[in-house]
Design the sequence.
C-alpha cells in the first residue's frame, strides 16, 4: 500500500499560513468533538517544517477518507490528493 499526498493550499503565505492551518485544524477538532491525535505535537512540528510550494503544503495520508481531507473540505481549503512519489 502506498501513501497518498494531500496538497493543501494555505490561506496565508509562509509561516503565518501554517499557523493559521494548525489553528483551523485544532478548532475543527474541538468543534466536532474529535479527540486530539496522540501524535499531535509531531504533526505540528511536521506542518511547521514543511516547504511552502507555491502556496501549497504536502501532507502524507493513507487514504482519501482521512480526517485531514474532511477538515480541508469543511474549512474551505483548496486541496487535491495525489499518489506519493
Sequence:
Amino acid at each position: 500500500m502506498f501513501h497518498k499526498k494531500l496538497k493543501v493550499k494555505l490561506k496565508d503565505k509562509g509561516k503565518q499560513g501554517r499557523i493559521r492551518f494548525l489553528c483551523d485544524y485544532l478548532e475543527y477538532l474541538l468543534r466536532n468533538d474529535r479527540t486530539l491525535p496522540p501524535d499531535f505535537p509531531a504533526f505540528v512540528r511536521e506542518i511547521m517544517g514543511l516547504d511552502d510550494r507555491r502556496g501549497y503544503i504536502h501532507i502524507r495520508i493513507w487514504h482519501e477518507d482521512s480526517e485531514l481531507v474532511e477538515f480541508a473540505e469543511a474549512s474551505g481549503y483548496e486541496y487535491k490528493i495525489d499518489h506519493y512519489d
Notes: The helical segments are 14-31, 40-49, 67-74. Residues 11 and 29 are 19 Å apart (CA to CA). Strands lie at 4-9, 56-61, 79-83.
